[in-house]
Amino acid sequence: MVELMSPAGNFISLRAALENGADSVYIGLADNNMRANVSNFSLKDVEEAVNITKEYSSKLYLCTNTIMKDRDIKKLEFDLELIKEYEVDALIVSDIGLVELANDIGIDPHMSVQENISNSYSLKTLKKLGVTRAVLSRELNIWEIAEIAKNSPIETEIFIHGAMCMAVSGRCFLSYGLYGKSANCGECLQPCRKKWTLNMAQDNDSDFFYEDDNNSSFILETIPDSEIEFEEDYLLNPNANSIQGVVSSKTNFISPNDLAMIDYIPQLLATGVDAFKIEGRARGADYVSAVTRVYREAIDAVENGLFIYKDSWIEDLEKVFNRGFDTGFYFHRPHEISSENQAQYTKKDIAKVVNYYSKIGVAELQIWDDLTVGDELLIQGKTTGSITQTIESMEINGEFVEFAKKNQNVAIAIDEKVRPNDFVYKLIKRDNIQK
After folding, report:
1. Calpha distance 152→140 (Å, rounded)
2. How many helices and strands, by DSSP H and E, does the chain display?
């Protein structure tokens, strides 16, 4: 049975992953993982996260997968005793020096995708070093993955959903070059996700320009016209042999679409890999909840011999944060470029939970925006996780109402238990989503 692994950047996402069927969850240790710009987990938080994960009979993996200098390893070495005591199931590493440290302390080391493992010979070497699992390179196709998994002496893992990086296995220097913030140390500011323009110089050379939110421009590279391939929507002069002026408008041409393999779960299971990994520790709990649930349903359907593809799966994935979908390198080179967030709904902060009455299944909300029967709510909390609920009935002071104005308390019927101080968002349908 394949292991479904979900991301968590905080306790709300951790609970959302576990409530929706994750077999394991991976989290980041503050200052030592590839998502330094999210909240992450302190060393003390790790103990609580392990205990929560055990409640669901799932596993917890701790990411320490950045470039590590001597001072970083010495600090982590000091922390490893506690990490072992907390019973973390594995340490995800990208630095080969951490493998021996993890083994010495008695924690399984898993090799990160940052190592760009692309063949079974590397896996045999990693086994000798004491690695128990490796994430295979994102640049492999499905047939190469199947061959490697068949010959691997250790467990193998692949990504099945989430953001894809423009660089080989995430080894990017663009953020460091522009801002001094290293992606390989978890500080990526994602300039690749911004809009870029391609301007044509008078001497027929071409300049790539990046403009940040403050309209500061950087010239990235100058290359000859002959080495550039242009799309059909670029502005061409039919009476000249060269391109003139500014080419097209700003676009996200170095930002790939998200990976989404929900259509191909049977094929992925047939490769024989041991774990399916969902990317997204920097994304919200609603994303973690929806993506975990969808892939859980699909995997269970195949393993129970009842797989029939459901249109609702992709519809649910489209509702939460995404940059459009592609199949990565599994069948071909990624062929689409992303624009901004393509989620079909935005989240508007509108209320908090005041109380929950378990016997009658009713939540009392304090609202600071208007609410209507039929609105879809997203409710999130450290213990609740992330759940959605369509308002089917609503009361104020014991009377049924169809509409409630802001700055009052309302009662709504709700299927699942929520808790005081849980966050409440209204899901609002977005218009003009690019496809």
Report:
1. 15
2. 10, 24
Distance CA 20, CA 413 (A): 21
Report helix angle 285-303 to 11-19, nearest 10. 20
For residue range 391-420, what is the model confidence (pLDDT) as tens digits? Answer: 999 999 999 999 999 999 999 999 899 999
Q: In this structure, are residues 243 and 230 in contact, taking their beta carbons and an 8 Å threshold?
A: yes
290: Cβ contacts below 8 Å, ≥ 6 apart: 316, 317, 319, 320
For the record, the structure tokens of 148 come out as: 């490697």
Q: How far apart are CA 201 and CA 245, in angstroms?
A: 8
- SS3 of 248, please? strand
Instruction: Report CA-CA distances (Å) from 240 to 164, 235, 246, 247.
Output: 38, 12, 15, 15
Provide the β-strand partners of residue 211.
Answer: 217
413 within 8 A of 352, measured Cβ to Cβ: no
Q: What is the pTM of this model?
A: 0.80
HSE value, Cβ hemisphere, 13 Å, CA-based, for 299: 23
Please state, in angstroms and rounded to a whole number, the distance separating the CA atoms of residues 246 and 239: 17
- C-alpha closest to that of 380 among 49, 25, 10, 23: 10
**Alpha-carbon torsion, ordered 270, 2, 25, 138, to 10 deg:** -20
pLDDT at 334: 73
CA distances (Å), origin 62, targets 30, 145, 237: 10, 25, 55
Structure tokens at 170: 């995430």
Strands 205-211 and 217-224, how do they pair?
antiparallel
The pair of structure tokens assigned to 218 is 């950087």
**Side-chain-facing half-sphere of 113: CA atoms under 13 Å:** 21
* Predicted pLDDT at 431: 72
Measured CA distances, 336 to 257, 310, 320, 363 (Å): 6, 24, 19, 43
Cα 84 from Cα 69, distance rounded (Å): 22
Structure tokens of 63?
Answer: 């990411």
Q: What is the mean pLDDT of the chain?
A: 84
Please give the structure tokens belonging to residue 306: 């009842």
Q: Would you state the structure tokens that stand for residue 396, as one six-digit string? A: 């104020």
In whole angstroms, how far apart are CA 318 and each of 166, 343, 385?
Answer: 22, 5, 20
pLDDT at 235 over 50: no
